[in-house]
Amino acid sequence: MEAIILAGGLGTRLRETVTDVPKPMAPISERPFLEYLLNYWIGQGVDRFICSVGYKWEIIQNYFGSSYKGAAIEYSIEKTPLGTGGGVMLALNKLDKKQPCLLLNGDTFFKVPLANFLEFHNQEGAEISLALHHVSGANRYDWVILNSDSSVQRFELRSQNVKSGLINGGVYLLNPEILKVETWDGSSKLSLEYDIIPKALNKKRKLKGFICAEKFIDIGIPEDYQAAATFFEN
Fold it and tell me: How far apart are alpha carbons 133 and 156 in whole angstroms?
């Protein structure tokens, strides 16, 4: 299976803690966060990765090269920042196959069992499946609201009044053609979370939510980044 990894982020909120490297290369116990991601997903059967990169992309390429532990790695390079959606759109052109592929956020680790996720995606006839994680006591996330049949009903922006619910864990299974935006000019910024996926939902495309209770961490803020070493030790 192929996987696109969104690894082009600046890591603005981590800038005082992690300097001079792309966010997915933030060191965790002297190993880059991206290495933990690759190790897990290679173990799940992914044999080809397309890294969507931008900020200081050479650091990632110099570290991992064109292969890692038997898995091929190719790089889709943004010459100017294109947002998560634009990065995905460029990377789609490098897919070898037209079958479902994984899409992974490069700054989150979510231990989703790929075999179960793929079975869900196929049985539901989904065009996009989102791996969802339940969190409580937090208001930094947007929320995903499901119908009783696991279809995505709507997305809700984060609220100070809502502190528990289902969040997008940054792991997707998708049919590649579903993400193509015919009007995109190849140079403007586009958001996966706020442009492409909501528009697909508005067009009545089949979006499904796969609830997973496995381990999850997002290193996007200093507090969670500092907790990552203990997270991986356990």
Answer: 15
Is the alpha carbon torsion for 22, 104, 94, 201 positive or negative?
A: negative
Rounded to 5°, the CA angle 182-187-192 comes to 60
**C-beta contacts of 143-149 below 8 A and 24+ residues apart:** 143/167, 144/168, 144/209, 146/209
Q: Which helix (H) or strand (E) holds 68?
A: strand 67-68
| Pairwise CA distance, residues 232 & 36, whole Å | 8
Q: Where do the DSSP E strands lie in 116-227?
A: 128-136, 143-146, 152-156, 164-174, 207-211, 216-218
CA distance linking residue 84 with residue 192, whole number of Å: 5
Per-residue pLDDT of 75-93, as tens digits, reads 999 888 888 898 998 898 8
Helix segments in the chain, DSSP class H:
33-43, 57-64, 83-92, 114-124, 197-202, 222-233
CB distance 150 to 128 below 8 Å: no
Q: What are the chain's domains?
A: 2-233 (3.90.550.10)
Distances (CA, A) of 76 to 8, 22, 91, 171: 10, 15, 5, 19
pTM to 2 decimals?
Answer: 0.93
Question: Tokens 């809700």 sit at which residue?
Answer: 156
